[in-house]
C-alpha cells in the first residue's frame, strides 16, 4: 500500500527524536511522560481499553506517529485483530471518510507489529 509509512521504522525514528528532545527539553519530556502514564493508568478502564480509545482518537486526528505507537502498545497488550477492527469501525463511524483512510493505516501497523 503506497502512501503509508512503515510503522516499525516510523516508531523507531520518532523514538530517536524524542530522545533528542529529552536532552534539550527535559522538563517538557518529563511532563509528557507523566501525562502519558496518567492517561494509560489502570483504573475503571484497563490499560488495553485506554489504548484502544487512544488509537481511535489517533485515527480521528490523522496522526500516523500516534497510530504506530498505540498499535505497538496494543499488540504488546495482546489485542486481537477482531478487537482492533471493532475500534477501527467506531473511529470510522465517528470520523467518516478521513477516519476510514487512517483506519487502514492502523490495520497496516497491526499487521507489521504482529508479523
UniProtKB/TrEMBL annotation:
<protein>
    <submittedName>
        <fullName>Carboxymuconolactone decarboxylase family protein</fullName>
    </submittedName>
</protein>
<dbReference type="InterPro" id="IPR003779">
    <property type="entry name" value="CMD-like"/>
</dbReference>
<dbReference type="InterPro" id="IPR004675">
    <property type="entry name" value="AhpD_core"/>
</dbReference>
<dbReference type="InterPro" id="IPR029032">
    <property type="entry name" value="AhpD-like"/>
</dbReference>
<dbReference type="Pfam" id="PF02627">
    <property type="entry name" value="CMD"/>
</dbReference>
<dbReference type="GO" id="GO:0051920">
    <property type="term" value="F:peroxiredoxin activity"/>
</dbReference>
<feature type="domain" description="Carboxymuconolactone decarboxylase-like">
    <location>
        <begin position="26"/>
        <end position="108"/>
    </location>
</feature>
Amino acid at each position: 500500500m503506497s502512501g503509508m509509512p512503515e510503522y516499525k521504522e516510523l516508531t523507531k525514528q520518532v523514538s530517536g527524536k524524542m530522545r533528542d528532545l529529552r536532552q534539550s527539553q527535559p522538563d517538557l519530556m518529563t511532563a509528557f511522560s507523566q501525562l502519558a502514564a496518567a492517561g494509560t493508568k489502570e483504573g475503571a478502564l484497563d490499560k488495553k481499553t485506554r489504548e484502544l480509545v487512544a488509537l481511535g482518537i489517533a485515527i480521528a486526528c490523522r496522526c500516523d506517529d500516534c497510530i504506530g505507537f498505540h498499535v505497538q502498545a496494543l499488540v504488546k497488550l495482546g489485542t486481537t485483530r477482531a478487537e482492533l477492527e471493532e475500534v477501527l469501525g467506531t473511529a470510522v463511524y465517528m470520523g467518516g471518510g478521513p477516519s476510514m483512510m487512517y483506519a487502514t493505516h492502523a490495520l497496516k501497523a497491526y499487521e507489521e507489529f504482529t508479523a
